[in-house]
């Protein structure tokens, strides 16, 4: 099978390529870009040694045609037009936000503009979402923060162990902010410093978390989300806490999470007492989880670490694509991180 | 006036010295240590060029005698014995935890062992705490996390704008974990990674936050606290959120915080829309604050940045010592950070 | 005395302001900028709390008039025009490159375009350069790398201990590359990575090193210079090595350096065996030096650490300005770094 | 084939395991340690999710017996005794220094104590060294710095383009200093700072560089080596410069390097003008090279980036083991890095 990547010069595109280089069933086809078209990939992703001499093409229906799967790693708002040029015979996997939200009002509130529609949501671990992906021809890859938060909290909500009032504070590496140069993303600014941003209920990933978790909780989950930019290139460490339902015990909580991860190849519940670190998952498609019951405060506290570019974007995209292409879900996806 | 520093080879001791080097009224006297006694300070704090040749003495009543103020930067549990050898004519400022908590049960639960007692609490900004410091001869310097969280939330609780159910997630630089070499604090481990630790309600600073805020809230404040080790040497960025009381408006919240910081030399409410970064306060005794009302989630969200070694430890110690010594509170304390 | 800063929104401008905030004799006057004019300083330098509400003015003769000293922190090529509008009664201190080089051919080779001229060179430690600064009305602040390298090697060359064939490899923090956002300076790119750049003899600071050292060596010093971008915001660590002249002994080398730094307030020769780290000098105007004779390789090896923004730019500028303004050279300049 | 790893709890051991997890022909057998024996691997290398429950055994002849290959990642001085217990039917690959140096006097001068002997040197790219590895039963893995420097300079010396007077300044990530906790390796100390160490001709890797390059140069190569600890976990960026032989041209130099890397799977000469960054090779077995002729200074300047743990240790070990085991040299070794 052959894959094209639209938006190959950015971080998401680069990570898809890194993973596909080790994928035994998918060959790398056309690589396209906007302003970078015409330049060699090595000018943008010099770490991808085997692809350094590949030249970026323009993102057009013609250059993307003839592939089994097309990964879109484009700025928000551009995916619909590109996808329209690709028939149903081509699997289209969109790493952007355009097709994630089901609720047009939520889209309009947080993103503005017209809602493009909804595609099957590419988070196989979310109960009920794996099977539809097996027959999908269009997939919306979840946002990096919603991936982390959903994986941390779906077991508690699905088992009725937590009240639908969720607080999330998540530290993210800077690659989550993309590659467009902005002064606040300069190394000089971010090294040695942590900073909150888009706090107070305005971050665009908030409704996506609510959309994922509310059906499991059987009630609208209210999410208070504060993202923090941390001085690291990759990784999300999300702390998620909700009031425990009355009578929940530590053992019940632990066993619920053990059951939830048991058959999931990419979910890993750490031994009791060991808390997630983003280095555990650097470059891996794994989510490292830990959960505890804070009995003094009456809260479930779940912490998750993922690599925002791997499980949070490119790895999640390939995991869902594997399903839609009829491949084993784990194909070509690393389980172990790169550390120290 | 002359100051001695017991525990001068550690990070807290080093930061006290750095600040005292610019203090116009306090001269640096004896510097003492335990296993490092006999070595030059330059072997431990090579950044303190003017003191590089000073030799560390043993920590004994004799070496600490004859100073106007003695700063204790000792491992937990050692301060009482050292302070006992110093008369009431000497101001003793303890950077350790020994005398912070009023409740022996809380001490025993979180620290274990016998409670040493309670000293005047060195957080002048906490309503009701400035005046007692003016006549104190013993001062307990707050913990770094409680300093941050108390400064972020005291206005909301004192004004009755928030329910007493507080969630705190705070990222800290590694210097907060001290200088004893442990594998998990190696640069190789911490660079490029964020990790939670002591989560689930077990961190020792939790009861101190509750002790500070409950009297203001007029009810026991329950605190769910998750500390995060971030890949930076200094700084705490604490996100604090509690349910808003019914009817609170954004304007009311903003004005409450504006009033709370108005006469405080070291509290700084950022312009609306600008969120704190730890780099704003690196090396400074300033706390940078921002607050917002998340109306969707019904929550007050306050974020604060401090330097854990400055406002969070050594600067806070000197600020309180200034008061007790009859000096202007701001004497010798930097208002601006070092950035980028 | 009052100072204006042209280019106050950049890193050099910000560091000048940080230092002037603690300067007892110089008051901060007009702050000017180009595209940032009209915005508050707090939007650019939120660490400078006391100046957060100051509004940036346009850089014009009018806004800069009426100050005792004007610091120029402008892009290369703009200083001459601005200085022309300021009479000889105003001290003008240029942090740019425009007036550093005496040799028009060197200027043209490395910078291109017309040579603007030569101003007194603001490196008081360089033999013969302190006295002219006392009467200067125009000062060219050295480049950050030439400052480091000159301070490391002037003693060896002045004492005839080294052959005029110098190899320099210097790691620099990213703030040396300025604040204009470029993809290669993004935090995502620089964190966790070291990279060489402008290697092979093309870096513009090369002729400035040669200009400084050749007169002391009594022969043209050839400099092979390789700059390395290191994952840190501040600091230069320069390793400088030249063949030892025949017969040089370790003791002779050590004593030469001891004599060279003896009366210099900002030069610090570390104890034998302790090598410089940039953290020793973070935010300080100090240069930390060490030197050794590698007898196997027959080479003098000198290593120096400075803060590129402080001693390497803003601190050096103020040090020279102090001399020209008739103040003690050390006025307002920190000797100690901020660490850890 | 099955591999045992002695010293599996350290950084070298962990990296060997990370690579073997993707190796199609080598199965992971016994994992042994010293003081960590009895603990699960997940306590030491939580990034190696698939091996988290494997328990570390004692390092004894019994636990290591019965494997096709045994990788030794032990402190210096311990390899000989362990290897003695393993027959010639077992390939033993030593990541330590014990068997690298041929000259007992060099060993004694730099390491002290008795010289253990010399094993085939595991750097296949070094001319003349690939074939002996195909029949080796004992392999000495090169040091990380000598790997970098040798790969950067062997083409120039082998082609007679450079004088045998080499200056090397190399920045290394902290993982090169190992996992034993020492105060100077704490994150608080290393983040935000670069520091020289073991400068002035005393670093133990110096004679190994000379041993590798002198035969190619046809004369004793004198090496002046200054290592720099950089604030990153992984990576070596080495700048290597030697006087150019008279008449060397840029084209000749470029073509020499092009020819040298042409058939080498792990050597990559970057396009002209692009300089190596350690991020290009993070986690990869690739060395990224660039070379230039500095005609002003009359010098060859070669810069190389490797991952000290991969190509510099564990990847190099597996590369050589592949040869000795009759496998294709590239088996299981990543060509691309993980970035950003």
From TrEMBL, chains A, B, C, D:
It catalyses: N-acetyl-L-glutamate 5-semialdehyde + phosphate + NADP(+) = N-acetyl-L-glutamyl 5-phosphate + NADPH + H(+). The active site is at residue 144. PROSITE patterns: ARGC. It is found in: Cytoplasm. CDD domains: AGPR_1_actinobacAGPR_like, AGPR_1_C. It comes from the Bacteria. InterPro entries: AGPR (IPR050085), AGPR_AS (IPR023013), AGPR_dimerisation_dom (IPR058924), AGPR_type-1 (IPR000706), NAD(P)-bd_dom_sf (IPR036291), Semialdehyde_DH_NAD-bd (IPR000534). Residues 2-134 form the Semialdehyde dehydrogenase NAD-binding domain. One of its GO terms (biological process) is L-arginine biosynthetic process. Its main location: cytoplasm. Keywords: Amino-acid biosynthesis, Arginine biosynthesis, Cytoplasm, NADP, Oxidoreductase. Pathway: Amino-acid biosynthesis; L-arginine biosynthesis; N(2)-acetyl-L-ornithine from L-glutamate: step 3/4. Its EC number is 1.2.1.38. The keyword Protein biosynthesis does not apply. One of its GO terms (molecular function) is NAD binding. GO terms for cellular component: cytoplasm. Catalyzes the NADPH-dependent reduction of N-acetyl-5-glutamyl phosphate to yield N-acetyl-L-glutamate 5-semialdehyde. PANTHER family: N-ACETYL-GAMMA-GLUTAMYL-PHOSPHATE REDUCTASE, CHLOROPLASTIC-RELATED, N-ACETYL-GAMMA-GLUTAMYL-PHOSPHATE REDUCTASE, CHLOROPLASTIC-RELATED-RELATED. Belongs to the NAGSA dehydrogenase family. Type 1 subfamily. This is N-acetyl-gamma-glutamyl-phosphate reductase. It comes from Streptosporangium sandarakinum.
């Amino acid at each position: 099978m052959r894959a094209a990547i639209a938006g190959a010069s950015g971080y998401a595109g680069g990570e898809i390529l890194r993973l596909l280089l080790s994928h035994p069933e998918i060959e790398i086809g056309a690589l396209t870009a906007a302003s970078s078209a015409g330049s060699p990939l090595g000018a943008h992703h010099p770490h991808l040694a085997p692809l350094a001499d590949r030249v970026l093409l323009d993102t057009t229906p013609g250059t993307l045609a003839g592939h089994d799967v097309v990964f879109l790693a484009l700025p928000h708002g551009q995916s619909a037009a590109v996808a329209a040029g690709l028939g149903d015979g081509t699997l289209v996997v969109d790493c952007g936000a355009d097709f994630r939200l089901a609720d047009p009002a939520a889209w309009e509130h947080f993103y503005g503009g017209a809602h493009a529609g909804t595609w099957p949501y590419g988070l196989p671990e979310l109960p009920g979402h794996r099977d539809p992906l097996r027959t999908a021809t269009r997939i919306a890859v979840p946002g990096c923060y919603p991936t982390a938060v959903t994986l941390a909290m779906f077991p508690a909500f699905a088992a009725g162990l937590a009240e639908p009032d969720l607080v999330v504070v998540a530290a993210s590496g800077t690659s989550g902010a993309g590659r467009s140069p902005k002064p606040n993303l300069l190394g000089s600014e971010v090294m040695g410093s942590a900073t909150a941003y888009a706090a107070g209920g305005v971050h665009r990933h908030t409704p996506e978390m609510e959309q994922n978790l509310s059906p499991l909780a059987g009630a609208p989950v209210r999410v208070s989300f504060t993202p923090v930019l941390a001085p690291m290139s990759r990784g999300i460490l999300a702390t998620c806490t909700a009031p425990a339902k009355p009578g929940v015990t530590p053992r019940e909580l632990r066993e619920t999470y053990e059951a939830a991860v048991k058959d999931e190849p990419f979910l890993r519940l750490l031994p009791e007492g060991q808390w997630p670190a983003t280095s555990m998952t650097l470059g891996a498609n794994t989510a490292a989880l830990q959960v505890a019951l804070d009995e003094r405060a009456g809260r479930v506290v779940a912490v998750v670490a993922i690599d925002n570019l791997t499980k949070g974007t490119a790895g999640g995209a390939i995991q869902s694509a594997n399903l839609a292409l009829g491949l084993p879900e784990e194909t070509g996806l690393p389980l172990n991180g790169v550390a120290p």
